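re: ur question from yesterday

yeah so i grabbed the chain u mentioned. its 214 aa long if i counted rite. heres the sequnce exactly as i have it in my notes:
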Amino acid sequence: MNYSSRKKNKTVKYIILHYTGMKTLQSAYGRLISPLSDVSVHYLVSKEGKIYNLLCPRFKAWHAGKSQWRKDKNLNNSSIGIELENKGHDHGYTKFTSKQYGSLKQLINFLKINYRLNDECILFHSDISPNRKKDPGEKFNLNKIGVYRFNKLKINNKNLPLSKMLSLYGFSNEYIKTHYDDCIMAVKRTLKYKKINKNADKDFKNNFYNLLIQ
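ran it thru and got these structure tokens back, copy pasting raw so excuse formatting
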């Protein structure tokens, strides 16, 4: 499989959640371990809740691609990637299973302890690459694994500009400028909207604000 060595000054700062986006677990597994593919990941969680440890986290997997979060770029360098078995938006997107949530919660808790990570370090692929990616998507519920990403934010101003809210969420300034609409749609996936579009009406802003202060 494809992987690289982490640079000595690069430590694990994030956990990135993905879906496989393939029709079967077998095809996803095969692609993730193939030296002929351009992708790899540290962990794969099946619908039945089985965890496959495909790569030791001390190595850099190729899962994030071109990405930014706050001031960090190319998050392969500083992250652990977890793929969740799901056909994805192109092949029949479905809800994630209770067994997946249960196993993922155990895995996340293990990694948080071992790498001294907090809830705000658990990110979606659509967060770090909003112009390219949709996963794990609007049917994934982060609260089901006991993660509350924004519980350390101290906000008491409902009149914040949307660009400021996007920054507080974690998008890089560059992405807010160049992929503004994609950032809005990524937030809607986190909010589990059924209809994903770039509209940012009053209801969306209220829901976004409530997410940031949860």
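noticed a couple things. The beta strands are 3-5, 14-19, 43-45, 51-53, 59-61, 68-69, 72-73, 79-84, 122-124. also Residues 98-115 form the longest helix (18 residues).
anyway ttyl
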